[in-house]
Amino acid sequence: METTIDIQAESFVRDLAAAIVAPRAGECLACYLDRVVRDAPCDGSLRLSRMYRDALAPRAVALESRLESGGGFCDCEVLMNVYWSKAEEVKPCRGARRGSTKPCDLWFRRRRGDGW
């Protein structure tokens, strides 16, 4: 039997988890994934990328196919294969225009033929 304190604790944990994975206003997709994948490990899908798109760039309907075409079939692969950081430290995000899924200037998009 659940008590009031159990329900309150569960609600608190769910709210906290939602706040951790919520995209921040002005945060680019690459910085968002870099920040969140540290606290919410990749589950083998583009769940976090979709969450970002739904919250900040809902018109980016081809996001998943673009990421997959670059080798990003899950959120952690997006950071390994699609967006590469230009520096060791990628904080704070230098910002993205609302509705855009392009990375800020701390990242570059890997193109076909780029060396590993």
How would you portray this structure in words?
- With 116 residues, the chain is mainly alpha-helical.
- The chain has one domain.
- The chain is 47% helix and 5% strand.
- It is built from five helices and two strands; from the N terminus they run αααααββ.
- The chain has helices spanning 4-21, 29-39, 47-56, 63-69, 75-82; strands at 83-85, 107-109.
- It has a two-stranded antiparallel ribbon with strand order 1-2.
- α2 (29-39) crosses α3 (47-56) and α2 (29-39) crosses α5 (75-82).
- The longest helix has 18 residues, at 4-21.
- It is elongated, with a radius of gyration of 16 Å.
- It starts with a helix and ends in a 7-residue tail after the last strand.
How are the elements arranged and paired?
Blueprint: H1 4-21, H2 29-39, H3 47-56, H4 63-69, H5 75-82, E1 83-85, E2 107-109
Antiparallel strand pairs: 1-2
Summarize the structure.
By secondary structure, this protein is mainly alpha-helical. It contains five helices and two strands; from the N terminus they run H-H-H-H-H-E-E.
What is the helix fraction of residues, given as a range? 40-55%
Proportion of β residues? 5-15%
Structural class: mainly alpha
Task: Specify the overall morphology.
Answer: elongated
Radius of gyration: 16 Å
Please describe the structure with a list of short key phrases separated by commas or semicolons:
5 helices, 116 residues, mainly alpha, DUF2695, two-stranded antiparallel ribbon, DUF2695 domain-containing protein
